[in-house]
Amino acid sequence: MLELKNIKKSYDGVTILKDISISIENSEIVSILGSSGSGKTTLLNLILGIIKPDSGNVIFDGKDLTNVPMELRGFNIVFQDYALFPNLNAYKNITYGLRNYPCRSTQQEVDSLIDLLDLRQHLDKKIDKLSGGQKQRVALARTMVMKPKILLLDEPLSALDGVIKESIKETIVRIAKDFNLTTIIVTHDPEEALTISDKVLIINKGNIEQFGTPEDIIERPASDFVKDFIIKQLTIKKDNIFKLFSEKKD
Predict the structure, then answer these.
(1) How far apart are CA 186 and CA 201, in angstroms?
(2) How far apart are CA 27 and CA 140, in angstroms?
(3) Distance separating alpha carbons of residues 118 and 140, to the nearest angstrom
(4) Residues 21-38, mean pLDDT to the nearest whole number
(5) Which of 83, 140, 142, 164 could be stapled to 79 by a disulfide with Cβ–Cβ 3.0 to 4.6 Å?
(6) Beta carbons of 239 and 195 less than 8 angstroms apart
């Protein structure tokens, strides 16, 4: 379980996060949803360990990680821009982290992940020859070979659209299920959050507006902000969201 207890963070006297407290169960997919400047990326960076809170605690499986360096937490992130190495082909990007940790994954595990993400035919390609969806899958594979305890995704679908976007959504859910992996996604898109997540954390100006299942949020919005931000921005019907959510759990 990941627990955030009374997390507060400010920059230059401006409060970004105000007393954030939530618990995320093992293997849950949780989206952190909010508009630009809401504090969602700051919260993701606090979990990863890039920055420290001004006060409060980050606890994972009963261990306080608040002052533990990022490289010792065992979490890993896929950045919005993928952060792939353009001078290396797809396979070398995937296995890059194993240079320093060769025992983290076996060759069989690497091969299984490559096949799971349907990357076999792209392994020799340089990064600039890959589509957006292929780059995202390479970035996911590179992260997964390191066997993270928590997978963090920063706007993983923002550069994608149409069929490719839906395919990557399905891939993220499949990885989370197959590996029983706690997955935390930062997004500004309500539809994306509601159709991919077990729970959604909605942040507004550093405050928690609501933390609950997609059904709870749609049927029982906790505030006028949630109603405005979620319901009015949806481009698909409630029934379709429930259908997609049910399919994800099956």
Answers:
(1) 10
(2) 17
(3) 12
(4) 93
(5) 83
(6) no
State the distance between the two ends of the chain, measured CA to CA, in whole angstroms. Answer: 23
Confidence of residue 79 (pLDDT cuts 50, 70, 90): confident
What dihedral do alpha carbons 167, 173, 179, 181 form, nearest 10°? 130
Report yes or no: 143 and 79 within 8 Å, Cβ to Cβ.
no
For residue 50, the one-letter residue type is I
Any bridge partners for residue 122, and if so which?
A: none
Structure tokens at 208: 């928690």
Per-residue pLDDT tens over the stretch 53-71: 999 999 999 999 999 999 9
- CA dist., res. 88 & res. 103, Å (int): 21
pLDDT tens, residue by residue, 176-226: 988 999 999 999 888 889 989 999 999 999 999 999 999 999 889 999 999
